[in-house]
Amino acid sequence: MKLVIVGGVAGGASAAARARRLSEDSHIVLVERGPDVSFANCGLPYYLGGVIAERAKLLVITPERLQTRYRLDVRVRSNVEAIDRAAKTVRIRDLATGRVYDEPYDKLILAPGAAPLRPPIAGIDLPGVFTLRNLQDVDHIKAALDAGVRQAVVVGAGFIGLELVENLVHRGIDTTLVELQDQVLPPFDREMTTPIAATLTDHGVRLILSDSAEAFEQAAGGLVVRLKSGQRLAAQLVVLGVGVRPENKLAVEAGLDVGPRGGIRVDELLRTSDPDIYAVGDAVEIKDFVTGEPAQVPLAGPANRQGRIAADNVCGRGVRYRGTQGTAIVGAFGRTAAMTGQSEKSLRRASRSYRAVYVHPAHHAGYYPGAEAMTLKLLFAPDTGRVLGAQAVGGTGVDKRIDVLAVAIAAGMSVYDLEELELAYAPQYGSAKDPVNMAGFVAAGLLRGDHPQLDVATMLAAPVEQRTYLLDVRTPAEFAAGHIPGAVNVPVDELRSRLGELPRDRQIAAYCQVGQRGYLATRILLQAGFSAANLSGGYTTYRLWQPVEMIS
Ligand code: FAD
Questions:
Q1: Which of 42, 319, 520, 524 is catalytic?
Q2: 7-26 pLDDT, tens per residue?
Q3: Measured from the CB, is residue 132 less than 6 Å from ligand 1?
Q4: Distance from the CA of 9 to the center of ligand 1, in angstroms?
Q5: Most exposed of 11, 43, 149, 327 (fewest Cβ within 10 Å)?
Q6: Which among 223, 47, 208, 45 has a CA at the least distance from the CA of 125?
Q7: Other CB atoms within 10 A of residue 143 CB
């Protein structure tokens, strides 16, 4: 079999290595436009920050190594310009010599990735304005940094934007982050990003939300970024991280089906609309694992797995790709945000019914030194309790919980299963009731009717005069340090003796710091005949809805 693979990084290199392991006899040609194969795109921001000191560390494997170890026919600096489906050939241009030739294939795997978006902003081609995708981009940015940058502007507060900001600050550069939306990390629910936004400002990042770059202008001493709001930001370096678009030109010109957002359409075997052509990675439209709807998820894990599966199927194994959950993680200045499955906003957009709970546990036993708080949001189906999504923000241990919940989603588990999960515990690692168990208890209690809850978002959406009766059951000292406007303070330990002070004709929402005392108060009130609910996640959740300046 003659297998040609277009694109030699995450998806393409995985496919090539797997195909070779399955088929010693095949002729496998790996065609890559750039000079490098299988480099670590995910490490690029850390090289810029000096955290990864050696450029060579970013080269996971060299073309020569791929040739010797896997006997691959690697052709770097070679661009595939066209696919002739009838003749089953690809047209390749050798970018070093200019030679153009046709290469026949029996099977073709497209792994061309996605290109950074370059919106039509005036001045986008000025020197000093960059995007970041590969080692050549990183070399240009590094050269600019080494030439002396005092001020930088990063446009776009997604995963790459945040990583860039952290690394620029790490180099001592005065950095501004501009984001069109009213939050950082747009895939997350807004309230879950408040601690990350606060961390950025705490570390001196100037964060400008709900604004966008309208023009880049040359100025004395560098560039000026003109924002829609009229603000002008001086910088010697601008990096755009505003998203990516699938590299679908080859596929479109060859008449392969693409989705409305440009992703190459593939079936469960990762075949395109041509059964001899497979496609993987950032360039494809796949099925969302939770909703079953088409989705584009440009992440390294899915690209690598899809590359492997496409190779399996080229070799006749009939392996089905189960869909992508969008499990993702990012760190900035010691804080971590991670998610898996659906977000609340994506569920709302898809008109799916869901419930959400928040818990704020410590990452390990509170009595053991060094416990760090995290916020965990769990989204689940109101009828079956099936876990639909989770997000967590905090420090140590966020990754572990999201990974456990990613497995729970993949296994089709419900919140009742989360209650029962037996997870590793010793005081320095976790708690006998792990944060994942805690989220399960709260969610399952809600579905069983033991633990009625009111969401902060619902509470805040009601006009102040129509709001539920808010009962703060924390201590007077905690209440004095900050409370929800309009709340009445009755500490939980006094509640049983002060029930006479509470209204019987209104719903009472009890709250404490994180939800635990609020839960007990809710149980006391319910059993005393009151209409009561616990404000989900308590005052800590309420604070996630407050402006960043108030919590940083
Ligand atoms: P790519 O890895 O982009 O490879 C595609 C290759 O195809 C490119 O090298 C391109 O030159 C080549 N190509 C395209 N067209 C042609 C053609 N016509 N002929 C020849 N060659 C062609 N994901 C995570 O999950 N976690 C992270 O922390 C993370 N961090 C990232 C940080 C940065 C700075 C970047 C840029 C990406 C990051 N990603 C991360 C995303 C991840 O790198 C991608 O999802 C993954 O690389 C996609 O793999 P792919 O094979 O589809 O495309």
A1: 42
A2: 999 999 999 999 999 999 99
A3: yes
A4: 6
A5: 43
A6: 223
A7: 9
